[in-house]
Amino acid sequence: MASYLFILFLLLLSIGLSHSLPTLLQITKDLHTHQYTTQLLIGTPPLPTKLVLHLSGQSLWLNNCPPSRTFLSHGSLQCLMAGPSPSCQVPQHNPITGDTTFGDLAQDIVSVDGMTLESFLFSCSPEYLVKGLVNSAKGVLGFGRSKVAFQSQMVNAFDFPRKFTVCLSSSDGFIISGAGISKSLSYTPLMSVDGYYVNVNSIKINGRKLGVGQPIGGVEISSTVPYTVMKSSLYEIFTKAFVTAMNMTVVSPVAPFGVCFPSQATVPEIQMVMQSQLVKWRIQGRNSMVEVSDSVMCLGFVDGGMGMTGSVILGGYQLEDHILEFDLGTGMMGFSSSLLNEGDSCSTLRESL
Questions:
Q1: Distance (Å, rounded) from C-alpha 245 to C-alpha 241?
Q2: Phi, psi of 13 (to 5 degrees)
Q3: Global pTM exceeds 0.85
Q4: Which domains does the chain have, with CATH numbers?
């Protein structure tokens, strides 16, 4: 952990010479819903507002907007920045239920980590849109690529570098806007689509490539899907190969998982091979298996059916205790091996920041 803290200190020092200091967002996982949440201070007076993190979300939307907010008029610079709309409305999407609508664009004071944005843009949602969000959450905080997403507004307001670092945890993680915290990362290009997708050529289990006959394609990095989801055709091949590699009898599955084993078994390594054989995302132990009881553990991957647009959505459980650096300036995503392999975790790292 000391190496990460030293690198972070040097990065903060160098950034501070020409930019505002990076901002730390504390992220907490709700163990019942598996949603990752954070808190901003919004309005006058500033009200603590709990929001669900959505990496691919294109804006901040919330229910019960503060009375101090100001709605923006059609034709204003802010409306033009938010996107084409005859009535200055922006799309709103609940990533948990899939509900979508449009909300009026507004602005107000928002504070985070001691930094204040005087005219932060967000939209006000109808009451029903918060259905499915963790208890007491007022809306969704989007980190996507639109001009009104949280990260974009931070870049414009404070002259941050166009990057942010995510470190999710089963308890307390964090996001740092404006900096990376490690130079020990592997890098892969981000695909040029909305949200954050990486191109995966193949999947290996204990070094053996799955026989799927074609590249896996675009894989979404998701903070709102609890466990990695695979299209049925791929899931069937994947689970059969995993059971073979485990070389032990399966036990009755426990929903939502399809394959379970007795606990304490040796677990094979899963690898997602990116643009070359040298760039691999390794999914091991804690990130691949879910303990559902004292005697049973399940493969933490879920059958998404045949209606999926892509083949894989990489879920939050598989992201935990990895450092992810999204560099929108270079169009690259950096990722670490599991911090648990080094005796660290995102929660212990956050305690030291």
A1: 6
A2: -65, -45
A3: yes
A4: 23-159 (2.40.70.10), 186-322 (2.40.70.10)
